[in-house]
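Reviewer comment 2.1 asked that we show a complete input and output for one of the modelled complexes. We chose the guanosine-5'-monophosphate case, as it is the one discussed in the main text.
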Amino acid sequence: MPGHAGAPERGASRKGDASKGRLVVLAGPSGVGKSSIVAELRKLYPELWFSVSATTREQRPGEVDGRDYRFVGPAEFDRMIAEGELLEWADIHSGTHRSGTPRQPIEERLNSGEPALLELDLQGARSVRAAMPDALLVFINPPSWDELVVRLTGRGTESEEVVARRLATAREELAARPEFDTEIVNADVHSAAQELLDLLTGA
Ligand code: 5GP
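Response of the prediction step:
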């Protein structure tokens, strides 16, 4: 509360507060390579703590429950919302599924003075900004729009309709760049991961 006796100055608990870990939120258009950057970052920084979202979508081949996502049914997801267990949640890809961020593990991690990383969609990044103003919002940009189109269509696993929807979402998300604190251009996954590491550790 502003002006409350004994409360720290507003600026003291901002992004530079060393007593708490830094919360870094990674967002950017679909297909920009966020998960590749995170995978590379894990090699550079194996002790990185990364939030595991809950999701109602189906598990994809190669995904591990509890590592990539916590896969839950719609009823369990409803319960988590009702009991306030999610810091934020969103309908993803026009409502094909819902994904959300469990609150408690993040708070525990930050209170122990260690950094935490969230990978979210734009809506999620905005919700975290509102719930935790100290969070550092990092936008991952493609080297160019054409490159992003190649990446989105090059996966070859989704229908034309799904790709079109992803491109539309990507356009909206690119327009949100000014809302972010900083950006990383993902021209090279190793350099992007290194830049992210510097942001996490405050280097
Ligand atoms: P996918 O379902 O393909 O893994 O991810 C689709 C989108 O959901 C991605 O843009 C990803 O960043 C976003 N996403 C994953 N987990 C969460 C979450 O917990 N909250 C929100 N708001 N978005 C998420």
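The longest strand covers residues 86-92. We note this here for comparison with the apo prediction described in Section 3.2.
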